[in-house]
Amino acid sequence: MPLRGIADFKRSPIEMKFCCSQFEARWRERNVRGASIYICPPSKGSNGPSFVLLSRGVDKGSEAALAQTWKGIELVINISSEIRIHYCPWCGRELKKYYEESYQSLIDPNILAELKEESANKAVQRTSATPPSLT
Question: Which of the residues 98, 101, 113, 123 has an alpha carbon 20 to 30 A from that of 15?
Fold first, then answer.
């Protein structure tokens, strides 16, 4: 599978020294269904990047087709779930320490754009939700 957005990376991930082969495999599969890893840059007040274990129930980009398939049916589906991690689940290395000098080359601008879009959509949903009646 070709890497998406590789021109945007500061250092080619192909040359990257990963902590283990499983971490590398999960990072390379961040846009497909299943378990994967992505990295977020440090946020204000944080002491380093965030490493996230992601589980996608649907391939990225297939959400619209899924919505069309189930159109008209009230159904709640967990498209993805994520959890921040501090240690590699496969080799046990401390991720911030291991990738301290190289994490920037693993940040995928496509994932960051996706997260920004999801955050904006959630904000719109919260503001447009009808408050429950107190009667």
Answer: 113
